[in-house]
Structure formats: structure tokens, C-alpha cells
Amino acid sequence: MGEIPIKKETLVNHQPTVRPEPGNDPLVEPIHRSVKYTYPTVAEMDQLFSGEKAGYFYSRYANPTVRQLELLLAKLQDREDALATSSGVTAITNCLLSLLKQGDHVVLFLESYRPTRYIVRNLLSKFGVTHSLISIKDHEGIAREFERENTRLVLFESPTNPMTWIADFDFIIGQAKANGVLTLLDGTFAGLHNYGSYAFDLYIHSLTKYASGHGDVLGGAIIGSEEQISAIRPDYANTGAAIAPDSAYLILRGLKTYFLRFREQCENARQIALYLENHQRVKRVYYPGLPSHPDHELAKKQMCDFGGIVAFHLDGTEAQMHEFIESLRLFILAASLGSTESLVTPAKLFFATDLTAEEQKRGEIEDATVRLSLGIEDAEDLIADLDQALGKVFG
Ligand SMILES: Cc1ncc(COP(=O)(O)O)c(C=O)c1O
Question: CA-CA distance, 269 to 71, in Å (whole number)?
């Protein structure tokens, strides 16, 4: 506080500031935890408010650590700008709230993340937004739904959860552009490095998964052109969707090893898929990297790798599937995906209880379907674990 004499009670609230001299920068950027930013004059504060001058004001609107993450995310997805949100579902909710109005129609898919269906079916329906729920493989249905006068946007994933179907981008984007429908891709399963060359209007990601990679932080992103992101930003700021700077920092740190982890996870998934495909008590394996996957050619065309998720049907009952999961020692029974450790989930229970039996059947989710999310452990250890658990259940 300069020359003014102050008491210690005042001092602890006006602490000394220590900043490195220019040219003596920290290699790792500091975490900017401050919620508030200061101005030397009221005129400069006013310039910031009117957009005449760049700067920070309040961290719900923007924050340097969060901005660092946003700039990196935009580059990874080959787009101009991004908004980092407190979770993946915040990104979905914020994007939909910002883009939709009463009377608009949304096209959704049976093969999608369950909370995405919840947001549209349970929440947005209260505000007069309608939707159709069809299969990602139903091209006739997609063309029909896009032609509706009030269809505003389509939101989809690829590979889909949990069965790893691949959406046909040329078809969906082509039909959407012809009908003035916005395309929103949730690219969580494929990661931030895939799909940048496709003309999607907006990308959504859960950064909780591959981006952060260690299962210790929630985060999400909306990525697109400068124009699209600027249009959403006021809604993002005024609804409190921002990610906390500490979380943004953990994701920035996680991203340093993103490519190493993703490559290893893909390779583990490939080896595990091959092992399962050759096991006599496995009825069918779903991994886009397997030539036997119905969408393998499409995946090869659209992706630069095939992801870390493998689904399969055990040739057994639901009870045997539970016993199998409980017999695994390295694969952990837990939600989520994309962490360094391998996870296992019973597909129907985790992902499809809001779907009718008929819808589950169309999505090829059976009673004994299992989803694996591969980590970065040694592939031989993972195969040995699957082998001992299968042996225990089926002898
Ligand atoms: C495809 C997909 N999108 C979005 C989300 C939501 O992410 P978050 O848990 O960060 O809210 C998930 C989470 O599993 C997901 O799998």
C-alpha cells in the first residue's frame, strides 16, 4: 500500500505482490485464481465494459488460465475459438440453451450419451423444444427429420456410446447444410485431434475423459468459429457455465500427455478387441478398428485412429456377465472413460435404462453386453485379467 501507514489487520488484506521481471517468465503458467480484476481508472474500466479495450473483469466471464485452455482446445480441434465449461454436460446444456428457442426441433439419436437425451427430453421439452429420437444408422429417418420446417439442430456422437457405431459425416453434414440444420458433434470418444477437417458447426467435448486423462477433474468445451463462440459467450457467462481455473490448469497439464496416452489406449483397445474376437464365449466384439466392425471402412475414412472403447456381447446370461465383471482384477467397475486405468461397465445398466426394450434391441445392446474403456496398462496384463475372469465364469 505504498507510503500510507497501515495496521497489520489491513496488511493481510493488501498483501505484497511478487511478479517475475519481464524475461524471467515461469515455464509453467501460474493458475490465475482471482475472481476479480482491477483497473487504474474508471475510464479504463469503462473501456473494458464497452469492448474498446481487452482485459479481464470477473472470472465467470473470462479468466487467463481458462483462456489459455480455450485457445489450446480451439487449435487442437482446428477451429478459431472455444469456451471451457465446468463439465461436459454443462457444455451440452449451455450450447443447446443458447442455440434453441421455443418451437425448435432437435434431432437426437438412440446411440447417444444418456444425459444428452435427458437434457433434451426432460428439460428442454418444458420450454417448448421438441425432438425426435432415431437411430444414427437410419439415413431415411435423418433426411426426413432434417426436412421438418422447425428442425434447428442435430446433436450426435461418433463412435457412439456404448456400441461404437460410426456416424456417416458426409451424409449428415450434406443433409444438414441442404436444410439449414446446425450440426453439433460430441467428439468426446474420438478426442480433440479427430474430425477437424469436417464442416461441423460446433464441437462439444467432455474434457473429464481423454483430455485431462487422470479421472480427477471435470470439464467440458464448446468449440467453433469465432462468430459462433462469440454468439454463445454472453449466455455462457450469464448462466455460470465457466470452468474453475484450478480445473482448467489440471486439464492443461493432462493435455501435455494427451497424445501419448491416446495412442497407447488405442493400441490396448486394438489388442484387447482381437483377443476377445477369438474367445469362444464372446459372441460379438464392437471396435471400429476391427475389420469385422460394420463401420470399419467409414471409421478408417473419418478418423486417424479408432479410440479406446471396446464393447462386446458375452455368450452367456446377465448373471454370468455380472460374475465376469466382478471377477476382473485390473478392470475397475466404474463410470466414465479415458483415464489411465482400464474400466468396465455393464452396458445396459449404465447407458440404456431410459430406452425401451425395442430401442435397446435396435441399438444392439443385450443383457450380457459389456463396455471396456482401455487405460495405459500393459496389454498382456489386461488380456490375462480378461482371460482369468472368462475362465472363472465359463470354465
Ligand atoms: C459422449 C459424452 N459426452 C458428454 C459426457 C459428459 O461429460 P461430463 O461427465 O464431463 O459432464 C460424457 C460422459 O461420460 C460422454 O461420454
Answer: 30
Phi and psi, residue 245, nearest 5° = -55, -35
Which grid coordinates are listed for 49?
A: 465494459
* Strands (E) located in the chain: 81-85, 105-109, 130-134, 151-157, 182-186, 202-206, 220-224, 282-286, 309-314, 332-333, 343-346, 369-373
Atom of ligand 1 nearest to the CA of 335: 14
* Cα 135 to Cα 91: distance, rounded to the nearest angstrom: 23
CATH label, 61-255, candidates 3.40.50.1100, 3.50.50.60, 2.40.110.10, 3.40.640.10:
3.40.640.10
Q: What is the DSSP string of 75-92?
A: HHTTSSEEEEESSHHHHH
Task: Please tell me whether residue 219 adopts helix, strand or coil conformation.
Answer: coil
**Rounded CA separation 163/5 (Å):** 68
Q: Cα(62)–Cα(343) distance, rounded to whole angstroms?
A: 35
Domain with CATH 3.40.640.10 in the chain: 61-255
Give per-residue pLDDT as tens, 3-31. Answer: 789 999 999 999 999 999 999 999 999 99
Query: What is the best residue among 73, 85, 86, 89 to mutate for testing ligand 1's pocket, by most ligand atoms within 8 Å of CB?
Result: 89
Cβ count near 41 (within 10 Å): 8
Alpha-carbon distance of 150 to 165, in angstroms, equals 27
Instruction: Using the mean position of ligand 1's atoms as its centre, give its distance from the Cα of residue 218 in Å.
Output: 9
pLDDT tops 80 at residue 170: yes
* Architecture of the domain spanning 258-394: Alpha-Beta Complex (3.90)
Provide the sign of the torsion angle of the four alpha carbons 226, 174, 308, 305, taken in this order: negative
252-261 residue pLDDT tens = 999 999 999 9
Pocket of ligand 1 (CB under 6 A): 87-89, 113, 157, 161, 186, 188-189, 206, 208, 218, 220, 336
2 pLDDT tier (thresholds 50, 70, 90)? low
| 346-379 pLDDT per residue, tens | 999 888 888 888 888 888 999 999 999 999 999 9
Which residues does 136 contact at the CB level (< 8 Å), separation at least 6? Answer: 109, 110, 111, 156, 158, 160, 165, 167
